[in-house]
Design brief:
It is globular and about 60 Å long. It is about 45% helix and about 15% strand. The chain folds into two domains: about 30-125 and about 300-335, Rossmann fold (3-Layer(aba) Sandwich); about 135-300 and about 345-360, Rossmann fold (3-Layer(aba) Sandwich). It contains 13 helices and 13 strands. Bound molecules: beta-D-glucopyranose. Beta-D-glucopyranose binds near residues 118 and 252.
Amino acid sequence: MKKLLKAIPLMLVVLMLTAIVSACGNSGSKVDVGIVLPTKDEPRWVQDEQRFKDELKGTKYSVEILFSQGSSAKEKENVDSLIAKGIKVLIISPQDGDAAAASVEAAQKAGIKVISYDRLITNTDAVDYYVTFDSVAVGKAQAQYLVDNAKGSGQPLYLYAGAASDNNAFLFFEGAWTVLQPKIADGTFKIANSSEAVTLQDKAELSREELSKIISQVTTNWDPSEAKNKAQTHLTAAAADQKGDVAILAPNDGTARSIADVFATDSAITSFVVTGQDAEKASIQYVIDGKQSMTVFKDVRNLVKDAMGMAVTILDGKEPETTGSYNNGKVDVQAKQTDVIVVDKDNVKASLIDSKYYEASEFTGL
Ligand code: BGC
């Protein structure tokens, strides 16, 4: 009994300490800004994570970055857990633009400001801001590169697109189409792998539904192995006059490398020009080695700066600056847009090494 009495104060102290520690734990897990990115499986988004981490070094706000690993369900879980941690601002690049509506509507209900990052969340009014690259310009730049490097006339043109669940896939393709279509109409190019695109080849401007028809047919789903399979299927089906010197619109670097690898092994392909985007390290090496023709460099440092700048402005109780707007199917979302840079063998060093985006030592043969 005496022992027990003696032990009581000790137990109380232990209990109190436990309470204090767990209270600290709770406040320790409080987060101001939540960031949700689509997947760690693509270097593009790992780049973004790294650039966010670099940018965050100086901030007084607490930030947590989560990945959705290609799953809208996981994305919703991520957003819910960030809401529970009391975030005030959500920066999110959706796995699927439509499916993410439910997540951001939950955030909006909790009084959180939502910034769509790089990819627009569609068909909901629960998006406050959009920070993005000029995605139509990305598609235009890819197409212009093919036009500038076209050989002769009637050159076979292979078209590939991103995932139809990503609004950007539409913007990229729309941009590319505005440049390619007149060159299909004047006989410079001849579409080799899309009956839907052939049906629409006389139309200078395509509706979302028309774009959707082509994209669904030539989608890579942003997946390099799907891109590889499609390219193999297309080359197996291609007639002799669809080979020789060809042009390939590939939507991003991951898919460009696998499509390029397939075209490189077909002996009836004499030469090919292939596009890309993201300036992924592996593709920069491909560009240096002459295996991928170009990439579109989207300086993620700028996008990260814009997104965090906006978040901090909101946290400080002020209104962020925007430069335009994008319609997401339901509302016009106020947007801040940043430019892109075309990179090929000629300017790879100036644009990526001299700007300190990458280090020369990360490449061979520069
Ligand atoms: C991004 C690209 C990226 C692609 C696949 C797009 O929404 O803008 O940079 O390559 O998604 O992840």
